[in-house]
Design brief:
CATH topology: Rossmann fold
Mean pLDDT: 85
Largest sheet: 2 strands, parallel
Order of helices and strands: HHHEHEHHH
Number of strands: 2
Radius of gyration: 15 Å
Number of helices: 7
Shape: globular
Distance between the termini: 21 Å
CATH superfamily: Alpha/Beta hydrolase fold, catalytic domain
CATH class: Alpha Beta
Strand order of the largest sheet: 1-2
Low-confidence stretches: none
Structural class: mainly alpha
CATH architecture: 3-Layer(aba) Sandwich
Strand content: 5-15%
């Protein structure tokens, strides 16, 4: 079942890769972002995404970074309850906004 789910979403994944590879934002620009940011990494993720997470930790020092035990790079699919709980907890710590309320309902 997870493979079918992934296959059904591959079109958007390709779009995400295209956006990432064409983005011109620098590390300096990232470090100035003022909005709340949550970065999650699976403890058993592959070396390349693990390195990206390490670089994001440096580039986004004000962000909340967490390493999720027992997960690989597909944690949002394989461990969705844990990932969703992390997101909800993060949102609950933010100042109340209408957007946050809508996101909370969706989770």
């Amino acid at each position: 079942m997870p493979q079918q789910l992934i296959a059904s979403r591959i079109g958007s994944v390709i779009g995400h890769f295209n956006a990432l590879f064409s983005d011109s934002m620098t590390r300096t620009a990232l470090s100035t972002l003022g909005m709340p940011i949550l970065c999650m990494t699976g403890a058993q993720t592959r070396p390349a995404p693990r390195r990206v997470a390490e670089l994001m930790r440096v580039a986004l020092p004000r962000a909340r970074h967490s390493i999720l035990d027992g997960m690989g790079h597909m944690g949002p699919l394989t461990h969705s309850e844990v990932v969703n709980r992390q997101i909800v907890q993060f949102l609950d710590r933010q100042p109340h906004t209408a957007a946050r309320t809508e996101l909370r309902r969706a989770a």
